[in-house]
Amino acid sequence: GKTVAFRFDIDGVDVTESTDADHRPFKEGFRSDISGITHACGHDGHITMGLALAKLIAQSLDDFSGKFRFIFQTAEEGTRGAVGMEAAGVTKGVDYLLGGHIGFQATTMRGIICGTKKLLATTKFDVNLQGKSAHAAGAPQNGANALLAAAEMALDMHGITRHADGVTRINVGVLRAGEGRNVIAPNGYLACETRGESTELNEFMKAKCMDIVEGVSKIYGVSYDVQVTGGTAGGDSDEATTQLYEDAAKASPFIDDDKIVRELNFGACEDFAHFMRSVQDAGGKSGYLMIGTTLAAGHHNAKFDFDEDSLLAGVDVYLRCAYKLNGKI
Ligand SMILES: [Zn+2]
Ligand SMILES: [Zn+2]
Hints:
Blueprint: E1 3-9, H1 24-27, H2 43-59, E2 67-73, H3 82-87, E3 96-102, E4 112-117, E5 121-130, H4 146-158, E6 168-177, E7 187-196, H5 199-220, E8 223-232, H6 239-251, E9 260-265, H7 272-281, E10 285-291, H8 309-326
Parallel strand pairs: 1-2, 1-3, 3-10, 4-9
Antiparallel strand pairs: 4-10, 5-7, 5-8, 6-7
Helix pairs in contact: 2-8, 4-5, 6-8
């Protein structure tokens, strides 16, 4: 039999969950216990599906040949988890890697998007600037202004010429600098991210950012340190896996035929793409599906909440894929 891996991401998001009376998790007592962190992306649903699927397969081992591997992945948010786990060998020898997400573009109950395309590539990086403090009126010429350098970097990055080959994104999400009103700012910090429709397009954006950091640092006489904190390759679900998901969805009593979408572009990043790419490059098959659910509020919103019936559809599709790939019956 084959080695079939399922990947479920398990981390929360840096969001404080709502305490409004109309927020069901608060009303019914299953709101996050931890201030500032909650499952506002639905990964708690993914954990649930993974455990249910593992239980169902374990209960029926005589039905199967081959091997199953369950990858419960940390730190998907910020695309920090897959790179390390892949390096540790979790996708080694995998013939089929299956995974997905509840919600996103799949916004109807009993619906599914089988083959997700164009998972964006991304790089997350921090820039730390070291300038020199000086009296702002008495001797500004002796300072090296890290605040102005940081500000110019942020504007220049957002002004990078776009690439004709496809979609790119840039965001400087945090800028901190300075120590006092009458002091030339000796320090600066920027939290940045680039994205691209392909790995190559993301690399183009990242290289331009590095040029800006280097060039602007020279102008202001500051030194810099760049730390890459996360990232993932881009990727597409392949035909074989898309077909596998579609066949499973058509057979599932929890999904309606007229709500099956064969392919759709994701337009966001998911570090599943890093696993997917490594499996596909090694000759295996992999694809990413989206399981339909209605949402009380969007992903990463303080009032995020999904319809738990959607988990049944997800587990059923994965189980049908398991039988299709490794079932004896
Ligand atoms: Zn998320
Ligand atoms: Zn997510």
